[in-house]
Amino acid sequence: MRTKLMQIGQRLLQALPSVFGIIVISFVLTRALPGDPAVYFAGMMADDNSIAEVRKSLGLDRSWIEQFFIYVGNLLHGNLGMSLSTGRPVLEELLTRLPASLELTFAGLGLAILVAVPLGVLAATRPGSLTDHACRLLVTAGVSLPTFFTGLFLMYLFYYLLGWAPSPLGRLDILYLSPPHVTGFFTIDSLLDGDFETFWAALRQLVLPAFTLGLFALAPIARMTRAAMLNALGSDYVRTARANGLSQTTVLGVYAFRNAALPVLTTLGMVFSFLLGANVLVEKVFSWPGIGSFAIQALVASDYAAVQGFVLAMALLFVVVNLAIDVLLTTIDPRVALEG
Amino acid sequence: MKRRDFLKTTGVAAGASVLPFLKYLPAQAAARDDTLVVVVGDGINSLDLHRQGTNRPSYQVSINIYDRLVRFGVKTLEDGTLAYDSTKIEPEAAESWEVSEDGKSITFKMSPKAMFWDGTPVTAHDVKWSFDRAVTLGGFPAVQMKAGAMSSPDQFVVVDDMTFRVDLPMPSKLALPDLAVPVPLIINAKVAKAHATDADPWATEYLHQTPAGSGAYKIVRWEPGQQFVYERNDAWALGPQPGMKRVIVREVPSAANRRALIERGDADLYMDVPAKDAKELREGGKVKVDGAPIDNCLHVLGLNVALKPFDNLKVRQAIAYALPYEEILSAAGYGRGKPMFGGSEASPSTIEWPQPFPYKRDTDKAQALLAEAGYPDGFETTLSYNLGLADWEEPTALLIQEALGKIGIKVTLDKIPGANWRTAALVEKRLPMHLENFGGWLNYPDYYFFWAYQKGHLFNSSNYENPEIEALVNETLHMAVDDPKYTENVKRMIAIAFQDVPRIPLYQPYLDAAMQKNVEGYAAWFHRQLDCRSISKA
């Protein structure tokens, strides 16, 4: 256990250079964006004078080097700067919006896993069967349907035509208040509060966007599960297990699936990170107040601090998710070492 | 205890700023008799209009929660739609006013009925502090105040507690109307000063999230990126009591969703509907669509006279004769505009503005003019447009490209992201041919010419320069409309615009709002925002 903790610490240390690199790159890239934030924020009717005033008050009249050191100094104090477009501290924005995105992503990913993994296993055990073809169809659909289309389509069908889904107004319908903040996940917070009505409302809001996202995430997971299971099922140890007369469940569950789980988990890590960024479109379609729509808005307005904060948050998240997956892998398969 | 009844009181939405939260919504909120649900595309980013970086949608907050000295009246258009009346100025926080004989100062008598939310009276001191703030903080508020000839705190004088005077460098017809636009709002100076610091003497940090006003509505909840909620200030006595007790403004970025919400009846009002949806919603008949032409606003094709070949008058006229106006209005504007082409007079007989320009599609004439200008085989150029306004600019640009191709002008389309548009088109003024949509808040033709036709001015994206226009606008801008020279000068300006066409008007757009059939009292405003005070539900 101790060595494992040390290894984790080491991994975190290894991430430092890449995080620093990301800080530098995001700083330079945001400034290389076309568009001048001073002009943008001075407003439509501003003249040269007022633009210069805004530029000065934003600190943009200083050199890049100076700006960079100020930025890094602030970062060390945990200050990510002010978002100009929303007028609030970037850290506060990220902290309120990240849970929304995470809740949606986890729900989408959870749905995808629930469907994709059994489907992949079934398809692998019966290659060429109807299940296998169904799996292929679903995977193809998931890959080829753009999320905004799926989102709009589901909404048209379930909200506009059938009226089953609640109005696509973000995390809660108009008449509900958000539950007391604990985790930031409305479904969890409302349960902690023992408030089932809000839980139900939050869940209802979550279904369509999570489904949209899930359909998109399903494809790589199902494909990877199928391939990995096929591989495992064709291996020597499964043949040996079968020859020794072990039951089908034991062979599939213990020998084949446990080995197949490694590549699937790795894929999950990738898919998760990818989804966090990719749910921008879903957030737009469902008015979901997440981190993706915030980033897009910031990019359009050349809101430097907000864009940098977003990139940094995503980078840190990526590091953490990958680490978590690696740690999980070592518990599943002792042969895998953390510094692999 | 049901959350639906909004009885929960504590700990709601951490991080949703320091606003006093809505303690409860009474049960009838569910029935929504006195609650209005509004959907908008872009959210607000501040509760303080004077702050730097405050975006346009945020103006609606200051309209509803703050009072001004005066306000514009509302009139009924021929088709029954309500719209603001630029010619009628009514008292608000000032019960009366008097213009001095030389026209160089306006003295306002404060209304004793004007009370801030904390119960203290609105005094001349508050007005002075607020106006000083508007001209001192810079940026857009300062520029807008300057348009009404107000640029220095010295011009704002407290005569006594309830008497306030504005001194002007010269008499100006724009001064009084400029006090009715969203910018010169009245802030509770005592509260604001208590939260001012040396680094922030105008309390911008405080007022950004915590308004201190006297208006008919208060903001009770603001969750950035999601929604904000107005609640009626029942003590407000500066006008008829507003019909809605509560107004919930919800941000819905996708236009398709906004439309679905209004059609399904989950939203009561949908502001700023794109022309296509406005037309289809109107034809659909499920909801009502109210709209009025936006005063002093034109969708134009700008030709940059500083760049060849647009420096050539004949080239500009040739293009004005080549444009497919009818198609643009029907296919890009979905008919939601007033035609600004096909006028019968080569020089105007009235000072109505905007009025149709004397051009209509005539390809032969266009070709002849182009040949006369020395371009019988046409030329190549680019047509730039703002991606942020793609809903009408994209189809318009495509139609123009096709039409100009017929007279040999090869047009390449250039899409510019919304954030860069201003720099390229208005500041650097470097786009040869471009689509532009300036609208003046103050409804005077000379005010439009001031911004769009005078040298170096922001919306003169065509780099137009004409000594006669310079002289005419300078002379006319602050002139009273009953001055005998006014009509003559304005007619001359319009005649020059007809002749020189640095900006070719396509149509005057509408501002459309879709609402449930029981929503009444919606009025179209020059600031293109929702004034909730007049709305009620039948």
How would you describe what is shown here?
The complex is a heterodimer of chains A (340) and B (538). With 340 residues, chain A is mainly alpha-helical. Chain A is 75% helix and 0% strand. In chain B, strands 1, 8, 9, 10, 11, 12, 13, 14, 15, 16, 17 and 18 form a twelve-stranded mixed beta sheet that branches. Chain B has a four-stranded antiparallel beta sheet with strand order 4-5-7-6, with helices on one face. A three-stranded mixed beta sheet of chain B has the order 2-3-20, with no helix packed on it. In chain B, helix 13 links the parallel strand 15 and strand 16. In chain B, helix 11 runs antiparallel to helix 13 and helix 15 crosses helix 16. The N terminus of chain B is likely disordered. Classes of the chains: A mainly alpha (340), B alpha+beta (538). Chains A and B meet through helix 2, helix 3, helix 5, helix 7 and helix 13 of A and helix 4, strand 10, helix 8 and helix 14 of B.
Topology:
The complex is a heterodimer of chains A (340) and B (538).
Chain A: H1 2-32, H2 37-42, H3 48-57, H4 64-76, H5 90-125, H6 130-144, H7 147-161, H8 186-192, H9 196-233, H10 236-243, H11 248-278, H12 280-285, H13 291-300, H14 304-332
Helix pairs in contact in A: 1-14, 5-6, 5-9, 5-11, 6-9, 7-9, 8-9, 9-11, 10-11, 11-14, 13-14
Chain B: H1 28-31, E1 35-40, H2 59-65, E2 70-76, E3 82-91, E4 94-99, E5 105-110, H3 124-136, H4 139-147, E6 156-160, E7 163-167, H5 175-178, H6 189-194, H7 204-209, E8 217-223, E9 227-232, E10 246-251, H8 255-264, E11 269-270, H9 275-284, E12 288-293, E13 299-303, H10 313-322, H11 325-332, E14 337-339, H12 363-372, E15 380-386, H13 390-405, E16 410-416, H14 418-427, E17 433-436, H15 445-452, H16 467-476, H17 484-500, E18 503-515, E19 519-520, E20 523-524, E21 536-537
Parallel strand pairs in B: 1-10, 1-11, 3-20, 15-16, 15-17
Antiparallel strand pairs in B: 2-3, 4-5, 5-7, 6-7, 8-9, 9-10, 11-18, 12-18, 13-17, 13-18, 14-18, 19-21
Helix pairs in contact in B: 10-12, 11-13, 15-16, 16-17
